[in-house]
Backbone:
């Protein structure tokens, strides 16, 4: 620390706390008592400090700063890390979860990718399943009303499932417009197929967090993996974390409540802090509520990654549409998230030149003479 900065810091501590001891000052300034006393003598000679006559303090002299020091030194230029922890955030990584909101339409899938790019998301994600594995036998033949008529649940799922060749086409579209794309797989067969497309990230859906064999296969790929933590207990998260740490696979825990849509009073966003404290890892938030504000709260609680479902139209048919953001919600989210870091500043009190111009119009007692 330069001597002038050191002296300013020394004076600022006395300014803020006139009763501070020399030992406390030395500890805060991370210097020896010898250096502190040397600088105190310098400041006394310059009349920036004066000695207080305190009969109750025989062992240690007390000092206070003079009016000359207040006028000479700019205390606002001191960064006091010992006293104030400034709120600092890196750029939040925003994931647009397109999921199955394309309803099997390649054209709509491309529109969702373009929508994510338009509103400044960092990545867009879809889903892939082997339907013979992922659908329980007792559900396959259940009849369901769909836009394609009354068909079995299996036939419905086939209608909305995109093929590997279609994902290859979507990847080209994403690369062309400049946004990353990845896919969350729901079974090992799909994982092996998707691996051929060499996406940058993997994702563990909340439903899959208790499938330890699947977690092992994903972690073996060593790709950065987003692990959603809905519909499980803390012990399930611990098991997942242990697998990824053992296989040295980078991961992000995504706090999540698996309700579609989720009522805001059930979001439990303080879990973001709990996960960070317990696992000492990167933490994000995967939201299924219909509003934007909880994502902003998640940002301020420390979520460095935020995933939100997106849709072309919330009135469209499909299980995830109502828990998704349309273009208006997407724009609101990204505009707010992106502008926050620019508003934080450095925490130093500054009298801006622009303010000085304004002050000349208002402080008549300073400029009338």
Residues:
């Amino acid at each position: 620390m330069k001597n002038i900065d050191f002296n300013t810091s020394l004076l600022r501590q006395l300014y803020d706390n006139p009763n501070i001891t020399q030992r406390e000052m030395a500890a805060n300034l991370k210097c020896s008592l010898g250096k502190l006393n040397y600088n105190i003598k310098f400041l006394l000679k310059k009349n920036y400090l004066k000695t207080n006559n305190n009969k109750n303090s025989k062992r240690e002299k007390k000092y206070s700063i003079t009016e000359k020091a207040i006028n000479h030194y700019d205390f606002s230029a001191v960064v006091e890390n010992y006293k104030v922890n400034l709120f600092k955030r890196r750029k939040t990584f925003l994931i647009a979860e397109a999921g199955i909101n394309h309803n099997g339409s390649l054209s709509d899938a491309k529109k969702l990718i373009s929508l994510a790019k338009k509103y400044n998301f960092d990545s867009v994600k879809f889903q892939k399943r082997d339907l013979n594995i992922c659908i329980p036998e007792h559900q396959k033949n259940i009849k369901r009303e769909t836009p394609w008529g009354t068909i079995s649940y299996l036939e419905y799922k086939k209608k909305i499932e995109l093929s590997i060749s279609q994902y290859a086409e979507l990847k080209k579209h994403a690369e062309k417009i400049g946004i990353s794309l990845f896919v969350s797989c729901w079974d090992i067969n799909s994982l092996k197929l998707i691996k051929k497309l060499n996406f940058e990230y993997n994702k563990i859906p909340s439903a899959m967090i208790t499938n330890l064999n699947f977690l092992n296969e994903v972690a073996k790929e060593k790709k950065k993996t987003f692990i959603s933590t809905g519909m499980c207990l803390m012990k399930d998260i611990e098991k997942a974390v242990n697998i990824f740490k053992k296989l040295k696979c980078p991961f992000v825990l995504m706090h999540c409540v698996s309700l579609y849509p989720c009522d805001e009073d059930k979001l439990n966003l303080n879990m973001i802090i709990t996960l960070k404290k317990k696992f000492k890892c990167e933490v994000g938030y995967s939201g299924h509520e219909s509003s934007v504000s909880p994502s902003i709260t998640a940002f301020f609680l420390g979520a460095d990654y935020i995933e939100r479902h997106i849709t072309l139209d919330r009135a469209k048919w499909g299980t995830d549409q109502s828990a998704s953001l349309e273009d208006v919600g997407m724009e609101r989210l990204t505009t707010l998230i992106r502008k926050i870091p620019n508003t934080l500043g450095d925490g130093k009190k500054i009298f801006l030149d622009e303010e000085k111009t304004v002050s000349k119009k208002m402080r008549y007692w300073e400029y009338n003479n």
Observations:
- The longest helix spans residues 327-344.
- The two ends are 40 Å apart (CA to CA).
- The chain has two domains: 3-84, 93-342.
- Residues 78-83 have pLDDT under 50 and may be disordered.
